[in-house]
Every structure is written in C-alpha cells, then in structure tokens.
Amino acid sequence: MLRAYVESIHGESARVLIGDEAVAISIPVHLLPPAAREGTVLRLNMTVDQAASVRLRGQVGETRP
Fold first, then answer.
1. What are phi and psi of 27, to 5 degrees?
2. Which of 1, 4, 2 is nearest to 41 (CA)?
3. In this predicted structure, what is the pLDDT of residue 65?
4. Is 40:29 a contact under the CB 8 Å cutoff?
5. Whole-model pTM?
6. What are the tens digits of pLDDT across the range 1-26?
7. What are the sequence ranges of the domains in the chain?
8. Residue 31, φ and ψ in degrees, nearest 5
9. CB burial class (10 A; 0-12, 13-18, 19+) of residue 7?
10. Residue range 28-52: average pLDDT?
11. Which residues contact 14 (CB under 8 A, 6 or more apart)?
12. Residue 2 parent element (H or E)
C-alpha cells in the first residue's frame, strides 16, 4: 500500500509527500479526505481504469495497448 503524508496546507493547496522517496506534489485541498490535516498519513489505492485509458489514448492518437 502506498502512503502519503500531508506536509502542509496553505489556503486551497496541500503539499503531500508520496511514498518512501517522499516525492512532493501539490494538490487542491478539496481532493483530500475531509478529516485530513497537516501531519495526516494517507493510504493511497491506485487502480487501472482501462476504459478511460483507451479513450485518452484515442484522444492523443496513441495506438499502443
């Protein structure tokens, strides 16, 4: 399970550190769970959306599976 740490929140933007490498990203606060605050650890669950992948590949002209 991938984990993330909410390092800081400033206005409508949150700085979140992802994974063991602590890769920093900024995301809109409204995308965080309602109970998330600075110092909160999040569990991230990623899945593949095949249908959306096919649609987006079609939009950019990509033909690889």
1. -135, 155
2. 4
3. 54
4. no
5. 0.78
6. 899 999 999 999 999 999 999 999 99
7. 2-60
8. -85, -10
9. middle
10. 96
11. 6, 8, 26, 27, 28, 29, 32, 36
12. strand 2-10
| DSSP line for 3-52 | EEEEEEEETTEEEEEETTTTEEEEEEGGGS-TT--TT-EEEE-----HHH
Q: How many CA atoms lie within 13 A of 33 on its CB side?
A: 12
Q: How far apart are alpha carbons 57 and 65 in whole angstroms? A: 9
How many residues can be counted in the chain?
Answer: 65
Q: Which tokens in the block code for residue 21? A: 């490498």
Which token pair is 24? 């920093």
